[in-house]
């Protein structure tokens, strides 16, 4: 029986014929989209601007309700989850991580524990342990007593990532997590996500703009175009010249990184 | 090693906040006693404290008022029947307005938010104006006609603003702020219009909108106390949600908070609180805006701490302001709203400057 349970849970997130368009907008952003996101992988969602990456993520997080179609998480329709229960399963690092409140960094990361806490309970040992680990992992431990309003863009990105990690969920969704980080912290963040995936079996879904970051860290790629899934599968199978050209309308040269053995993608504008 | 450091920091802050709470409660009691001794009949602070204590169940049995009543048999009456209702009314109003101000600043993620931002107070003013002009003569809950009408006006306005700013089941913050401001402006012009047709009542209406506690009664105190305990209680229960809401709507939802529901509950509780405050005292500005900021500078942004401390701070502040309002130019009075702004602004600027200097040092 236990095995059966694992099997059904293994299905992960199933998106069926999902359609959604923003209010007062004729053109649908998501158009009859089907997609399977399996547990235990690192997914990179890529695609040009306006292809519906963020809208898909927002639907999965139930920030917006689908007009048509269904999303199930662990075989249960998303609609039937209580917000709090959903927050125990999926954590988010949003696109905009600017924090303008006067909270201390430590307090912000501690907010990640809210779904696990009773209303009037104080932080437990587990809570502070989780927070500490998350802060060490994202290299923001030394910022713990700083006011978040004084943090740089990259620092607050790491703090918000720490909060999502402290939430201790099976699924971790990141919307452009590397956009405001310098190269060192980009790599460190992706390394720590990989570590979370390998050691704790967490499923990572990251909306990425940098194809090379996606290629280096993700073992699955979801490629989106015009509100639909263009292709969804293993990284090397999806990231082909044809697919990239088709989706981005830009020519790509695929080289090999001699040091890591990974593929390296260099874009060329068509008319040059 | 590092773990212990984290915990220490957290605990240290909690302890500080507890001390701040104790100190503020002590100051509040002191302020009540001092304020009760001020006035045309001159009492000492200890005498007024004794008179107040003699009315407290159980404690009262052990207090002997014979010395005071020998000096003037009316003293207990003056303190308990005339001064205390007014002091307590100011205290509850200050508490309610500050708590709502603190909650609104977090909820709307806007440091300029104050309890009157939803237009509730302007609605109350229209109600009060209508009552004053029409001369209707009934009231309920010990409020009197003007208070009753003001309360109805406040609640109606809150309802209208809320309905107008809903988009589906969502409640965008910008919508509420804009709708509240616009409705408030419209209601103010209605008052102006009503006043132009009734020149003889201009002074009365104007003075009401400035705010005053001069018409305090025990009935009003009871009315406001019930609302303050209930509404501030409800708001404080949602401290943690307010904390998360300051970091944005999406973040709050991803942390498992039903933001639409929380906003609805908070806005209803806040509107009832503001409506109750305004209907007993008129529109008193500044307390709800500035006190939460002062408390935030002293004790941080966590609403669990911020809301209760703001409540106490607001009560203290308004009691002091009202004491000045009724004594500075006795026997006539200065509108309490004038004092709040004149006293509060310099102190707030001082706190801001001190905070700036501190941050530069770090």
TrEMBL record, chain A:
Gene3D superfamilies: P-loop containing nucleotide triphosphate hydrolases. This is Iron complex transport system ATP-binding protein. InterPro entries: AAA+_ATPase (IPR003593), ABC_transporter-like_ATP-bd (IPR003439), P-loop_NTPase (IPR027417). GO terms for molecular function: ATP binding; ATP hydrolysis activity. The keyword Transport applies. Keywords: ATP-binding, Nucleotide-binding, Translocase, Transport. PANTHER family: HEMIN IMPORT ATP-BINDING PROTEIN HMUV. The keyword Thylakoid does not apply. Coiled coil: none annotated. Pfam families: ABC_tran (PF00005). Residues 13-251 form the ABC transporter domain. The lineage of its organism: Bacteria, Bacillati, Bacillota, Clostridia, Lachnospirales.
From TrEMBL, chain B:
It is found in: Cell membrane. GO terms for cellular component: plasma membrane. The chain crosses the membrane at residues 21-38, 87-104, 116-133, 140-162, 174-197, 218-238, 265-293, 334-352. GO terms for molecular function: transmembrane transporter activity. One of its GO terms (biological process) is siderophore-iron import into cell. Keywords: Cell membrane, Membrane, Transmembrane, Transmembrane helix, Transport. The keyword Amino-acid biosynthesis does not apply. It is a multi-pass membrane protein. CDD domains: TM_ABC_iron-siderophores_like (cd06550). It holds the Pfam family FecCD. InterPro entries: ABC_BtuC-like (IPR037294), ABC_transptr_permease_BtuC (IPR000522). The keyword Cytoplasm does not apply. Belongs to the binding-protein-dependent transport system permease family. FecCD subfamily. This is Iron complex transport system permease protein.
């Amino acid at each position: 029986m236990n095995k059966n349970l694992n099997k059904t849970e293994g299905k992960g997130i199933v998106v069926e014929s999902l359609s959604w368009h923003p209010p007062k907008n004729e053109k649908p952003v998501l158009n009859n989209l089907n997609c399977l996101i399996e547990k235990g992988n690192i997914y990179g969602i890529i695609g040009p601007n306006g292809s519906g990456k963020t809208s898909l993520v927002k639907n999965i997080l139930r920030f917006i309700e689908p007009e048509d179609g269904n999303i199930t998480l662990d075989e249960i329709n998303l609609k039937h989850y209580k917000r709090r229960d959903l927050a125990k399963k999926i954590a988010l690092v949003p696109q905009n991580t600017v924090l303008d409140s006067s909270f201390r960094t430590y307090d912000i990361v501690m907010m990640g524990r809210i779904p696990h806490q009773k209303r009037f309970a104080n932080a437990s040992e587990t809570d502070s342990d989780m927070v500490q680990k998350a802060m060490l992992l994202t290299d923001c431990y030394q910022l713990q007593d700083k006011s978040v309003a004084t943090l740089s863009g990259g620092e607050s990105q790491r703090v918000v990532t720490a909060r999502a990690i402290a939430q201790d969920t099976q699924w971790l969704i990141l919307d452009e997590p590397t956009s405001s980080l310098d190269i060192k912290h980009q790599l460190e963040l992706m390394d720590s996500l990989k570590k979370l995936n390998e050691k704790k079996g967490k499923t990572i879904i990251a909306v990425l703009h940098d194809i090379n970051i996606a290629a280096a860290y993700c073992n699955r790629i979801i490629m989106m175009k015009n509100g639909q899934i263009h292709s969804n599968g293993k990284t090397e199978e999806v990231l082909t010249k044809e697919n990239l050209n088709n989706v981005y309308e830009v020519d790509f040269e695929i080289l090999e990184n001699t040091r890591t053995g990974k593929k390296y993608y260099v874009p060329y504008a068509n008319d040059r | 090693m590092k773990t212990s450091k984290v915990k220490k920091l957290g605990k240290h802050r909690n302890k500080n906040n507890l001390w701040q709470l104790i100190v503020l409660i002590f100051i509040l009691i002191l302020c009540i006693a001092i304020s009760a001794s001020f006035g045309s009949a001159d009492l000492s602070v200890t005498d007024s404290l004794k008179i107040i204590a003699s009315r407290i169940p159980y404690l009262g049995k052990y207090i002997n008022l014979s010395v005071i009543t020998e000096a003037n048999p009316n003293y207990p009456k003056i303190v308990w029947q005339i001064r205390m209702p007014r002091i307590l009314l100011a205290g509850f109003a200050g508490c309610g307005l500050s708590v709502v101000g603190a909650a609104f600043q977090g909820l709307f993620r806007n440091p300029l938010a104050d309890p009157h931002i939803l237009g509730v107070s302007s609605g109350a003013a229209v109600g009060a104006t209508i009552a004053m002009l029409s001369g209707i003569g009934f009231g309920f809950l010990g409020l009197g006609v003007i208070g009753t009408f003001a309360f109805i006006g406040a609640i109606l306005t809150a309802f209208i603003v809320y309905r107008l700013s809903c988009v589906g089941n969502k409640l965008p913050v910008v919508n509420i702020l804009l709708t509240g401001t616009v409705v408030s402006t419209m209601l103010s012009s209605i008052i102006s219009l009503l006043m132009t047709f009734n020149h003889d009542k201009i002074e009365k209406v104007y003075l009401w909108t400035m705010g005053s506690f001069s018409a305090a009664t025990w009935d009003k105190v009871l009315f406001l106390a019930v609302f303050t305990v209930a509404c501030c209680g409800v708001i404080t229960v949602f401290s943690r949600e307010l904390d998360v809401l300051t970091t944005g709507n999406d973040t709050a939802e991803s942390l498992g908070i039903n933001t639409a529901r929380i906003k609805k509950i908070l806005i209803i509780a806040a509107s009832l609180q503001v409506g109750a405050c305004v209907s007993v005292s008129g529109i008193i500005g500044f307390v709800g805006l500035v006190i939460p900021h002062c408390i935030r500078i002293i004790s941080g942004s966590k609403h669990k701490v911020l809301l209760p401390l703001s409540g106490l701070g607001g009560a203290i502040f308004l009691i002091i302001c009202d004491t000045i309002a009724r004594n500075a130019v006795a026997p006539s009075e200065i509108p309490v709203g004038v004092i709040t702004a004149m006293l509060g602004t310099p102190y707030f600027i001082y706190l801001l400057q001190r905070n700036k200097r501190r941050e530069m040092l770090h």
